[in-house]
Amino acid sequence: MPPAAKWSAQxxxxxxxxxxxxxxxxxxxxYLGTSEMTLQDSTRHFLKHFxxxxxxxRAGRVAxxxxxxxxxxxxxxxxxxxxxVTRREALQLGLPGKLxxxxxxxxxxxxxLIFVPSIANFRVNWLQDRLVAARLASLAATAAxxxxxxxxxxxxxxxxxxxQAIAVKQERVRRMILPADQPLVIDASFDLxxxxxxSAFASxxxxxxxxxxxxxxxxxxxxxxxxxxxxxxxxxxxxxxVEVVLDEDSLCKAMIDHALNIxxxxxxxxxxxxxxVYIALSRVLVxxxxxxxxxxxxxGENPEDHDRIIKPSGRGDEIGxxxxxxxxxxxxxxxxxxxxxxxxxxxxxxxxxxxxLRNMLASAQLLSDRLGxxxxxTVQRFAPKLVASLDRAINFCNDTLKFGRAEEAAPRRSxxxxxxxxxxxxxxxxxxxxRVDWVIEIPEGLSIDADREHLFRILNNIMRNAVDAxxxxxxxxxxxxxxxxxxxxxxxxxxxxxxxxxPEKARKNLFKAFQxxxxxxxxxxxLAISAELVRAHGGRIELKNGHGGAVFEITVPDRxxxx
Length: 563
Prior knowledge:
By secondary structure, the protein is α+β, with helices and mostly antiparallel strands. Helix content is 58%, strand content 13%. It is built from 15 helices and twelve strands. It has helices spanning 3-17, 24-28, 36-49, 53-69, 73-91, 95-142, 151-161, 200-217, 248-301, 318-371, 377-403, 418-428, 452-471, 504-507, 525-536, and strands at 165-170, 173-178, 188-191, 225-230, 241-247, 414-417, 436-441, 447-450, 478-487, 490-497, 540-545, 550-557. Strands 2-1-5-4-3 form a five-stranded mixed sheet. A five-stranded mixed sheet has the order 7-9-10-12-11. A two-stranded antiparallel ribbon has the order 6-8. The chain is rod-shaped, with a radius of gyration of 50 Å. The chain starts with a helix and ends in a 6-residue tail after the last strand.
């Protein structure tokens, strides 16, 4: 049994044997495994909660042996995995390395495309040189006395021309001028005469055939004899043809030397071109892209730091567009995160204030209860309203304290008449006022299925905004109209005023907290809270276009039949 398994079994047995004295063993048992770290942590947890001294000594002895004898295969595996990841990351090329390799590859490809026709032209030119040299050798041979060419002279002429045999065809008569010492077997023949091409495709086909013949020279068997014939002076003597027989090995050696020269020159040109292209593309493309990627990583580490926002370079191309868009996106994200932090701090402060305010309102509620015991008729008339307002304020403080931990409380729906609630809201806002009238256009007996407290807050927020807007008008007399209708299983409540209306710039974020304030000094929380409460009922709140004023429509559906 491996040491780790053996000591793990001993520790498990120790836990089971101590289960009657303490529950620490059962706390430890689920954590026993094959990982060294897990066993060490489990052992420390066991020793921390295990009380009997003798058993603790024994557990400590087992734990020390366990840690000492634990195989390091897991650790080595982890190291190998880590090294493997590091090795893979090291083998991965970055954008500059990939650009350099691609540049070298494409430049070398271009050089290969140039090399193939070049080597074909070199072969043709080399054979043409042999034909010219053979023509000169044939002239020297025909000038010999008696028409007989001595053997030594024939060998020198053939050697100087670099061929094995020379024949000349003049006036349709073929003559062997310098024959070979022994009969030769011709393996291939090549016509180098400049014949007119029938079409462009025929010319391309001839070029491809020359390239094929040139490449075959490198793989042809050694000692192959070839015959080449062509015109040495096509302008003056188009019918004269010189024919030579030669060993292709000399041609192959010359082509290899030429290919090596081209290879060295191509490598030098490729390196220079690749370096220039790499430097140019690095400055124009790679470095800006690396700067973009580094900025993304840096900004992602701390997006709340305004100094980490990328500063566009002012370029007019796609990279400049990417820089500007990234800067705009980072700015918006930075502002959103900073705003959320400020809102979190504000929420903490509001929670503390509401906690103290709730205690103050509780004391005021006790005093109002005692005030309601006075026999004065005026006191008896206003005391219930004062008590209701204090109760509502205390409940609002409690809900505000809960808001930091969760959303608005779920609506506690009930069916109740709407007109008394609207009048209660008007009484709280002291309507009618000197410059603000209000009108109720709700049918008698119309009821609504909603949370009474939530609907009070919704109407109170909307009507308070309407009162503030109307009182800011210098001379006009304002009016607020509240109406309601039933349509199927929905209730539509409309709050209309004849004030200045909602500014166009505030309409877009009207129901967003801290963004939809429509009056100086406002926070925009009222309408945001109202919208959240309406959505909690499954309804909707909308701002409609009115004739000079604001028209808010609140649609509240009834509860489903299942509820």
